[in-house]
């Protein structure tokens, strides 16, 4: 019966780690992985997370009952407050419907499905994604029945934002289209709009009557400051816009495999939020019934306990700082080799990744000749670098650029 099943291609991002694992060369580097690594190249479990986990295990009231369909209510409350801010008018007026979902991906998927069913009938089912974007966005919205279109985002010449192209494409979008916006630390480019550009995007979104859908996968990870990284989301919410927000705790709490995330829909009134939440549950129930409890319990404790929260924020600053330091080390190493071109983008780009502009064939050479594993769009994970490995990467880049 299954003889007709075709071999699927490997996932372009997850496949990088598979290639790295299979590479026997001792110099091999994994710069494809979108996960934080210590200076020693090791995965890192935050101390605040370990502490929260121990408290949960020691709690005699802990049980393994099902969570409600909408998940851990305390986690949901803390998650939306983290994004929208403690003084959010939308939260104060109880206009936000929040459900726990399976990390960022699951939150996006539930959000896309909800929009596909419940956007007004007169709205087109079209989503605008930045070009480029995290590869999974296309499949997530495609599976939910959206027609996927792109808006210009990255300017290859400046390795910065193509703001003119972005605003032109979004202005031309049919009213009622969904626009996906990376809340901060755009993946894969590391290029974000400035404050002033966000203000213009807000006006454009309102004028063109777009539906903003924020993907917040890196809050606190970009600048080390949770509030600063939420500025764009708060700007839109405080301007009174109705919006959708997917949050992931994979990076900022290092809870990758725990799948802790939240989907919020900001509405106009408490009554609408109640109805929206009831419909979100109908999306979730036939998909996976209810979400897993452990990761959300950890995140709720870390956010809710003042001591753990302070510990978390300090570790978050430490992770962001190490990544920034790696940008400087790599930049200095590239400059020291007099590689042609302006490499200052390495310093300017934000968050976990740097988008190098290296061509596909140059990337292939990095993998084959230098055992440096990365996605073939030229994205490198700064979190996968260390002071010890940055010179090797610079040497390899010098070689592939010269050839
Ligand atoms: N959105 C973006 C932009 C991402 O980079 C990621 C993780 N790579 C996600 C969403 C989802 O991650 P997760 O499902 O692990 O939370």
TrEMBL record:
Keywords: Aminotransferase, Pyridoxal phosphate, Transferase. Its cofactor is pyridoxal 5'-phosphate. GO terms for molecular function: L-aspartate:2-oxoglutarate aminotransferase activity; pyridoxal phosphate binding. One of its GO terms (biological process) is amino acid metabolic process. It is an enzyme of class 2 (transferase). Residues 27-397 form the Aminotransferase class I/classII large domain. InterPro entries: Aminotransferase_I/II_large, Asp_trans, NHTrfase_class1_PyrdxlP-BS, PyrdxlP-dep_Trfase, PyrdxlP-dep_Trfase_major, PyrdxlP-dep_Trfase_small. It holds the Pfam family Aminotran_1_2. The keyword Transferase applies. PROSITE patterns: AA_TRANSFER_CLASS_1. Its EC number is 2.6.1.1. One of its GO terms (cellular component) is mitochondrion. Coiled coil: none annotated. NCBIfam families: PRK09257.1. Homodimer. Belongs to the class-I pyridoxal-phosphate-dependent aminotransferase family. In eukaryotes there are cytoplasmic, mitochondrial and chloroplastic isozymes. This is Aspartate aminotransferase. It comes from Pleodorina starrii. The gene is PLEST002874.
């Amino acid at each position: 019966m299954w003889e007709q099943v075709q071999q699927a291609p490997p996932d372009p991002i997850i496949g990088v780690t598979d290639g790295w694992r299979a590479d026997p060369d001792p110099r091999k580097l994994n710069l494809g992985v979108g996960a934080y690594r210590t200076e020693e190249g090791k995965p890192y479990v935050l101390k605040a997370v370990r502490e929260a986990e121990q408290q949960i295990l020691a709690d005699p009231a802990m049980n393994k009952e099902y969570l409600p369909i909408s998940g851990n209510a305390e986690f949901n409350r803390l998650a939306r407050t983290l994004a929208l801010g403690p003084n959010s008018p939308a939260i104060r007026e109880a206009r936000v419907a929040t459900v726990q979902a399976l990390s960022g991906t699951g939150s996006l998927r539930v959000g896309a499905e909800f929009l596909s069913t419940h956007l007004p009938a007169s709205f087109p089912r079209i989503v605008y994604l930045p070009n480029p974007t995290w590869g999974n966005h296309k499949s997530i919205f495609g599976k939910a029945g959206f027609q996927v279109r792109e808006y210009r985002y990255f300017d290859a010449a400046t390795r910065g934002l193509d703001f003119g192209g972005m605003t032109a494409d979004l202005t031309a979008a049919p009213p009622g289209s969904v626009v996906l916006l990376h809340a901060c630390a755009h993946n894969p480019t590391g290029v974000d709009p400035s404050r002033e550009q966000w203000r213009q995007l807000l006006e454009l979104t309102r004028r063109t009557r777009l539906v903003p859908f924020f993907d917040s996968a890196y809050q606190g990870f970009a600048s080390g400051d949770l509030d600063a990284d939420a500025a764009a989301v708060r700007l839109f919410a405080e301007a009174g816009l109705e919006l959708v927000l997917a949050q992931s705790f994979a990076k900022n709490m290092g809870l990758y495999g725990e799948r802790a995330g939240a989907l919020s829909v900001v509405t106009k009134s408490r009554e609408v939020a109640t109805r929206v939440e009831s419909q979100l549950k109908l999306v979730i129930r036939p998909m996976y019934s209810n979400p897993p409890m452990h990761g959300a319990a950890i995140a709720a404790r870390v956010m809710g306990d003042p001591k753990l929260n302070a510990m978390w924020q300090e570790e978050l600053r430490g992770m962001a700082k190490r990544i920034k330091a790696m940008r400087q080390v790599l930049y200095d190493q590239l400059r020291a080799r007099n590689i042609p071109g302006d490499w200052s983008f390495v310093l300017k780009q934000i968050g976990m990744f740097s988008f190098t502009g290296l061509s596909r064939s140059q990337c292939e050479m990095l993998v084959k000749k230098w055992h440096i594993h990365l996605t073939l769009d030229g994205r490198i994970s700064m979190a996968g670098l260390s002071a010890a490995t940055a010179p090797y990467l610079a040497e390899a880049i010098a070689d592939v650029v010269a050839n």
